[in-house]
Amino acid sequence: MGNSMAEHARCNDRDYVAMATAANGQIRALAVVNTGIVEEVRTRHQMLPVASAALGRTMAATAMLGAMLKDEEKVTVQIIGDGPLEHIVADADAKGNLRGYVQNPNVHVPSNPQGKLDVKAAVGRGHLWVIRDLGLKEPYRGGVPLISGEIAEDFASYFFRSEQTPSAVALGVLVERDYSVRAAGGLILQLLPGANEGIAIMLEHMLEDLPAISSIIDEGASPEDIICHAVDDLEPKYLGQLPLRFACTCSRERCEATLIALGAVELEDMIKEQGEAELICHFCKERYIFDKEELEAIKDQILLQSARSDQD
Ligand SMILES: [Zn+2]
């Protein structure tokens, strides 16, 4: 499993999360650049600009949620709206692995009155869910109704309502004319317990004077530069970096398990009707083909197993 993960992993030096505290530990700051990973996903899924913007924003926030985890913990974000994108899914973990997809990558919606990609119209109304797998029996799941559909405000609402943590969130993606992703990233500022009221009021206004995240990144800003832009006058202390990579957990073995779960009868039909099976991963679009002989072998394995369990 470890090997197959590495096969689908892509690294680049620019994509990482930076973590800091500011105002003597009263504020937690995280910033991310994920341009390379969003571009990787864009080419794999042939995404049109509004899908790249919506997924890129979601993946930026998810990467920062991942950076707040530890060890083997994982996080999944689902944004399920009634707009044409339908649902957006992103996964991250504490090790910097990041992946995601949108249900309908080919959606086109007209620009909004400001001439920008209309993410709100593409997402629609619905919910944002955060599912944290902390290695316990049940994953922790929290969600909020979407208040904007532009995604950053929706994450801020999630942090406040579901985690009781006042937060300011900025997310942005810049798409080129040729649809390639030019810049993507984000910033989360959170009030830590014990913060005084003055800092709490400041937090609400901290993003107001901040230029668009995607344009700062486009000018070459690193995650630390983004934090510096936002909280420079509050003496940020940098705690570390989490390098990100596009990585998927799919593998031939997992596909085989899916085929085994179908059962012998279904496989027999598949062999007769199609002569092969093609499985495509939702997340990374990797194609797995099983030819007739391989399907026969899987079928025999199922029959053998069921014969064994009959004997027990
Ligand atoms: Zn995959």
**How far apart are the first and last residues' alpha carbons, in Å?**
31 Å
Radius of gyration based on Cα positions: 22 Å
CATH architecture of the largest domain: 3-Layer(bab) Sandwich
Instruction: Note the total helix count.
Output: 11
Q: Which spans have pLDDT < 50 for at least 5 consecutive residues?
A: 1-7
CATH fold title of the largest domain: Hsp33 domain
The strand order across the widest sheet is: 7-6-3-4-5-10-1-2-9-8
Q: Report mean pLDDT, rounded to a whole number.
A: 93
Indicate the percent of residues in helices: 25-40%
- Cα shape: elongated
Structural class: alpha+beta
User: What's the oligomerization state?
Assistant: single chain
Helices and strands, with pairings:
Layout: H1 2-7, E1 10-22, E2 27-33, H2 35-45, H3 49-67, E3 74-81, E4 87-93, E5 97-102, H4 119-123, E6 126-133, E7 140-145, H5 152-163, E8 167-175, E9 181-191, H6 197-205, H7 213-218, H8 223-231, E10 237-246, H9 252-262, H10 264-273, E11 277-280, E12 287-290, H11 292-311
The chain binds zinc ion.
What does this structure look like?
This protein is α+β, with helices and mostly antiparallel strands. It folds into 2 domains: 2-246, Hsp33 domain (3-Layer(bab) Sandwich), CATH 3.55.30.10; 252-311, CBS domain Like. It has 11 helices and 12 strands. The chain has helices at 2-7, 35-45, 49-67, 119-123, 152-163, 197-205, 213-218, 223-231, 252-262, 264-273, 292-311, and strands at 10-22, 27-33, 74-81, 87-93, 97-102, 126-133, 140-145, 167-175, 181-191, 237-246, 277-280, 287-290. A 10-stranded mixed sheet has the order 7-6-3-4-5-10-1-2-9-8, sandwiched between helices. α10 packs antiparallel against α11 (292-311). The longest helix is centred in the last third of the chain and has 20 residues, at 292-311. The radius of gyration is 22 Å and the shape is elongated. It starts with a helix and ends with a helix. Mean pLDDT is 93; it is low at 1-7. The protein binds zinc ion. Zinc ion binds next to loops. The site of zinc ion has 6 residues, from loops.
